[in-house]
What we know:
single chain, mainly alpha, Cytochrome Bc1 Complex, Chain D, domain 2, 49% helix, electron transport, Cyt_c-like_dom_sf
Amino acid sequence: xxxxxxxxxxxxxxxxxxxxxxxxxxxxxxxxxxxxxxxxxxxxxxxxxxxxxxxxxxxxxxxxxxxxxxxxxxxxxxxxxxxxxxxxxxxxxxxxxxxxxxxxxxxxxxxxxxxxxxxxxxxxxxxxxxxxxxxxxxxxxxxxxxxxxxxxxxxxxxxxxxxxxxxxxxxxxxx
Length: 175
């Protein structure tokens, strides 16, 4: 009977040692990751770079997507109506009816900062004169990048096709 107890106790100790070692290994890995990333490693250039002849040249040409003008020429105003939902939280489509943002009725071709009874931030008036489709595209892509200091809190619409469709929809609302 003593022999069975010894074997069970020995196996328990071995299993405990293996689990304890694994736990120490995992905690060590976690601590090393925290120390490495807290020090800011990887956020700067290499200290020493070995120049390689032709290393910077790429054989593949950089492909850029179609221009906004090309995408806008094929824009679908009906699809832009679906993009409008994100804007409708702060803007209205009725002429002269402002909300958190100004009315967007007739915005395409309108002089920037001229919607009646709406207080614009000065940064918008400084970056553009007229809301052309190109200016609207740049603003919708990155409002704070296009007009730093703007009061618009929207983060931007990433897809060029979505922006073109939305602008086509807004342009179709008025004469």
